[in-house]
Amino acid sequence: AHTMLALLYERVDEDELADREYRLAVQYDPQGGDVNNNYGAFLCSRGKLAEAEPYFITAIDDAFYTTPQIAFNNAGSCALRRGDLDKAESFLRQSMELDDKQAAALLPMAEVSYQQGKYLHARAFLQRYEAVGPPSEESLGLGYRVESTLGDEESARRYRRALEQQYPGSTQAGGTAGRE
């Protein structure tokens, strides 16, 4: 009940009330995977990046939690946001070991690879993402950056065009909107 209330408060941007309800949910089910993953995701989305990680770890450690790949993915995405590329890569790889077609892990893994200077790996993860997930502003922007860095101008143009058509005014392609 507390988790549901927290989710409702979160939707209506009542962060203090959502936080209180999440804390109560964790208090009543301190080892629960769903409860801890949800609270970790909430904290991460609110910029409390380091504070979120222990909740993801608790979720992962719950033997009865049926979707640990989601907690691994959330932990990896949160680590990426705080700039810890090694930890992000580790969590995301563990997520992909459990579900290698999970779009939610493939796209951040492509970003990690790009930031590590592993551009061909970034391209490969992005292609895997594109095979299972819908194009997004983030994926198209990353595709543009990857292909530009690799020197594939035609592919970079395709990504930029798709980005401009699907997300007019986007800054994901490095402010190239309207240029050819």
What descriptive keywords fit this protein?
mainly alpha; 0% strand; single chain; disordered C terminus; 180 residues
What would you note in describing this structure?
The protein is mainly α and 180 residues long. It is built from ten helices and no strands. α3 packs antiparallel against α4 (49-61), α4 packs antiparallel against α5 (68-81) and α8 packs antiparallel against α9. The radius of gyration is 18 Å and the shape is elongated. The N and C termini lie far apart (53 Å).
Low-confidence stretches are 176-180
Number of strands: 0
Question: How many individual helices?
Answer: 10
Radius of gyration: 18 Å
Strand content: under 5%
* Average pLDDT figure: 93
The 3D shape can be described as elongated
Task: Set down the secondary structure blueprint.
Blueprint: H1 2-11, H2 15-28, H3 33-45, H4 49-61, H5 68-81, H6 85-98, H7 103-115, H8 119-132, H9 137-150, H10 153-166
Helix pairs in contact: 1-2, 2-3, 3-4, 3-5, 4-5, 5-6, 5-7, 6-7, 7-8, 7-9, 8-9, 9-10
Summarize the structure.
Helix content is 74%, strand content 0%.
